[in-house]
Amino acid sequence: MRVPIKIATRDWDYLTPMILGDVTSDRIDLQVDRVGTLIPDLATSDVYDAAEVSFSRYTSAMAEGTEAVVGMPCFIMRGFRHRCVITTEASPLTRLSDLAGKRIGITGWRDSGNTWTRAALRREGVGVEDAYWFAGRLTASHPIVDRLDGFGRPGRIEAAPGERPMMELLAEGELDAVFTPFMPDGYFENGSGFRQLLSDFPAAEKAYFDDVGYVPGMHIVAVKAGIAEQHPWLPAELTRLVDESQRLWTTKRRKYAETTPWMFDELLRSARNLQPTWNDSGLDANFGMIEAFITELREQGILQSDLTPQSLFPFESER
């Protein structure tokens, strides 16, 4: 009898084979719910057995000794962060190092993606203490919530003035740049008034990859600890489903590349410039990236702990 598992994930295109049933398991009866935002807390959810969760928040929870969920080094969301720094078309800023002493808007201080973006800045000599940070909602359609998450410091890390949307503050010159993983509505249209800070961000990201050897991971797959204890094989089987869906989707994407005019170029560039194992799951495959993320959390004052990749994913280490 297959174990029923209900999982909440964002609507990643490569999960399509898994959602449609092209990728299945003899051991798991999987139901995928596509959600617009990550669920607040998998451990206390009365709906979901598994979920896409923040790598940063999972790491913080493990550092605090919380073991209510079992995280797997299966990075359901990865991506370079150089493209996530935007400014106005009229801005004179063109390099990450130009952000020294500038006012930067950020959608959430603890967020995994923003942690990696600050890491990219730190590599260019701009640390947390070298800029002024304002956490807030990206646009008026986003909710007003606490985005400082306890890490605010007057004069250095504050809420956006008046909780005004950061894109408005950027347009009016109150901010010099904004970090965002998802571009606001209208951004891709001609005449939006905004641009990526780096004009050739793919080149910067390629140089970054050549140096560090990984594509940063933001979200992982996790299951409730009770389910993993009852079915020790389940985390690995769920990881296999995600990985197989990714593999099948990539194969089909390469065949049916005409969904956008230059998708073929993107697929070819990724295949030629990245190692074939860049998106592999598992502790060994991601050890360096996980270790670097822990280091960044410490350097940025988010984590005070002696966590290691092995202690962060003990279930994986015991396999």
Molecular structure report:
This protein has 319 residues and is of the alpha/beta class. It folds into 2 domains: 179 residues, D-Maltodextrin-Binding Protein, domain 2 (3-Layer(aba) Sandwich), CATH 3.40.190.10; 131 residues, D-Maltodextrin-Binding Protein, domain 2 (3-Layer(aba) Sandwich). 34% of the residues lie in helices and 18% in strands. It has a 6-stranded mixed β-sheet. Strand 6, helix 3 and strand 7 form a beta-alpha-beta unit. The two termini are 23 Å apart.
CATH fold name of the largest domain: D-Maltodextrin-Binding Protein, domain 2
Radius of gyration: 20 Å
Topology pattern, helix = H, strand = E:
EHEEHEEEHEEHEEHEHHHHHH
Number of domains: 2
Oligomer: single chain
Portion in beta strands: 15-25%
CATH superfamily membership of the largest domain: Periplasmic binding protein-like II
- Major sheet: order of its strands? 8-7-6-9-5-10
Mean pLDDT: 96
Poorly predicted ranges: none
Per CATH, which architecture of the largest domain? Answer: 3-Layer(aba) Sandwich
In DSSP terms (H or I, runs of 4 or more residues), the helix count works out at: 11
Describe the largest sheet: 6 strands, mixed
| CATH class value of the largest domain | Alpha Beta
Structural class: alpha/beta
Please tally the β strands and state the result. Answer: 11
Q: Distance between the terminal alpha carbons, to the nearest Å?
A: 23 Å
